[in-house]
Design goal:
Layout (H helix, E strand, L loop, with lengths): L1 E6 L6 E9 L3 E3 L4 E3 L13 E5 L8 E4 L8 E3 L13 E6 L6 E6 L1 E16 L5 E16 L2 E2 L4 H10 L5 E5 L11 E13 L5 E10 L2
Length: 214
């Protein structure tokens, strides 16, 4: 078992819940909730997220995490919301995760290649004495996962790999779990990840390379 800890930033997993340009959504600061008497706001669960746009008050827009399961007329959050009456065109999109939040993956690995790389220069004096100088020494891990189900698991990998594709650091632990770490390393993604299909099955091997940050 191996583990990864990352910050969600891109391609965050959407939930089926979406409400577009609804003019019947109000906000209550009593329980920090979004409310409606006509639209169905159910479908999101506690700890999931909703991304909101359209309100006049900035605090009511953006990312909000649910404290309890949503019901037909109410989404209750842990944000500090500001009371606002209905009337604006509001869009709500549900997400499993929230932007800027930290998440974990625990994975089985098919293969891991550890590689040390450096540039070597040899200086030779007039008397024949040689001096070797190493530059740009780095450690990398080339990782291939065990089978990943394309329907139920790939979306987590897409979120993770897109979230770190711009060189953002994350934690990779080759032999540890989240509960029992072994040797967590701060790393960044290098190169381009690869998705390899297994024959005609809805299963994949995912391969990627990380560089250890010093």
């Amino acid at each position: 078992m191996a583990s990864i800890t990352y910050t969600a930033k891109r391609s965050i997993i959407k939930r089926p819940f979406v409400l577009t340009n609804a003019n019947d959504i109000s906000v209550s600061d009593v329980d920090n909730s979004f409310n409606s008497v006509t639209s169905d706001l159910s479908g999101l669960l506690a700890s999931e997220w909703v991304y909101v746009t359209g309100f006049l008050t900035a605090a009511n827009n953006g990312w909000h995490q649910l404290t309890i399961d949503a019901v037909t007329g109410k989404i209750t959050t842990d944000s500090i919301l500001v009371t606002e009456i209905a009337g604006e065109l509001i869009t709500l999109q549900g997400y499993l995760h929230g932007e800027g939040e930290q998440y974990n993956l625990e994975i089985s690995l098919r293969a891991t290649d550890y590689i040390e790389q450096e540039r070597k220069f040899i200086n030779e004096s007039i008397s024949g004495i040689e001096e070797e100088i190493l530059h740009n020494w780095k450690e990398t891990y080339s990782v291939t996962t065990s089978k990943v189900d394309e329907v139920t698991e790939k979306m987590y990998w897409v979120e993770f790999l897109h979230s770190v594709r711009a060189g953002e650091s994350f934690t990779f632990d080759e032999f540890g779990t989240i509960a029992v770490p072994n040797n967590p390393l701060s790393v960044k993604l290098v190169g381009v990840p690869k998705y390899s299909r297994i024959q005609n099955a809805r299963e994949l091997y995912i391969s990627f390379t990380v560089k250890v940050l010093t």
